[in-house]
Amino acid sequence: MNFFGYCNMTSDIIIIGAGASGLMAGIAAARGGATVTIIEKMPRPARKIMITGKGRCNFTNVKAWNEFSQHIRSKSNFLRPAFYNLSPEKMIAFLEENGLETVVERGDRAFPASHRASDVIDTLVNAAKAAGVRFETGCGIESVEHDGECFVLTGYCHKYSCKKLVIATGGLSYPGTGSTGDGYKWAAAFGHKILPCFPSLTALVPKGYKTEAVNPEIKGHIDRSTPLSELGKALCGIKLKNVGLSLYINDNEVQNEFGDLDFTDGGIEGPIGFQISRNCVKAIFNGSKARIVIDLKPGVELEDVHKRVRSVWNDVQKDPRSRNLSVKGALKVILGKLMPQEMILGFMMSNPGILNGKKGNERIDMNVLAESLKEWAMPVEGFVGYERSVVTAGGVSTDEVFPKTMESRLRSGLYLCGELLDVDCDTGGYNLQCAFSTGYLAGESAASSLHSCN
Ligand SMILES: Cc1cc2nc3c(=O)[nH]c(=O)nc-3n(C[C@H](O)[C@H](O)[C@H](O)COP(=O)(O)OP(=O)(O)OC[C@H]3O[C@@H](n4cnc5c(N)ncnc54)[C@H](O)[C@@H]3O)c2cc1C
Questions:
Q1: By alpha-carbon position, which residue is closest to atom 42 of ligand 1?
Q2: Cα 453 to chain center, whole Å?
């Protein structure tokens, strides 16, 4: 506050963070007639958007609310007003009006027609500048306070003040993009409840897949860079199409998915791997035991898999080329008729029970083989952390934020939006849409509340 008791305001509204939510908040606020500054600690805005959708930016999903909301993994009702205020169709129209051609692809996922994430960033930044938003980049905010009259922000380079503040600092995922969770401590200082955060849409690490065990500092965290074990090397790179995947927590089946999964240098990923990752990480984080079970033959009943295995075994036995094969060699030939060649080694290592008996006197257990094809079970040792998780689950409790404005229920003039909130979704464009919608609503509400004060 200055000598006369008024703020020496940098702008009417300051937005901390020039990510997806912050940029939309800036555009809405400036179009609402406010003077707006967006402060971004990275040298350029929206570093994270740059890496979305593998650089192609799946910026929204055009499903109607009833279906869209089923992909939100937290309290979806909270997002309903923001979604209708800036729906996926409105987001597409907004980008098109600002010169970006878009396409909708399989699964209702929308992309820039150029398939370049940088085009989305340029469109948003240009729209913000055209609306009059001022950018301060390369200089982050360290602390945020309210002095009774205005918000006072201490940055690494300058001090700022404003009447309305939008915190749009994102979550903790991919900290190299600037999202290091700074907003949580400021929200907590204003009295907000922060629900425990954990990485979601991340690789799950099967037991024995990596050379080292869990990082003891964060329960279940196995850094992405931890080297692969022999088993990990045998499985890494394999992509499974149309398989079943079940998640068991403390021996109870909690989720069942069908689709594609990938074994990567992190562990198990791909669409259905990601789909179960939230429940799995949360369980491990809370000290439960997690196990996944892959069904390599989801369309076939176990009884028929048994029959198929026996018929393959009979064919192999009859084949004169099999006569001099070792037991292991024969098993490899059988597996070659049941799965892609590149999977055989990893599958055998992961299912040692298929060969039983003492060394030198082993035999193939056909029942175990058939069961392993239907129920390839792997305990999950841990998960890849924020260093490579797509999203952060948990965050500022939505119970203390007005869903129709994104304003804090605890501190008037404070707005919270984006991944900072306890909001996370499946892959498919849902996360960015939620960031755009909540950001837009926050900026719009902040600007209109400013006018109602005057
Ligand atoms: C690899 C990857 C791929 C993804 N792909 C998709 C996809 O295709 N589709 C989809 O819908 N979602 C995708 N997501 C998720 C999506 O990108 C995020 O949910 C979304 O970007 C969140 O937006 P946000 O504005 O809340 O936060 P962010 O985009 O994280 O932006 C926060 C900004 O705040 C800045 N900031 C933080 N602290 C400070 C500070 N102290 N001072 C100043 N500035 C600060 C940060 O530098 C950052 O620029 C992906 C995420 C990742 C990691």
A1: 140
A2: 39
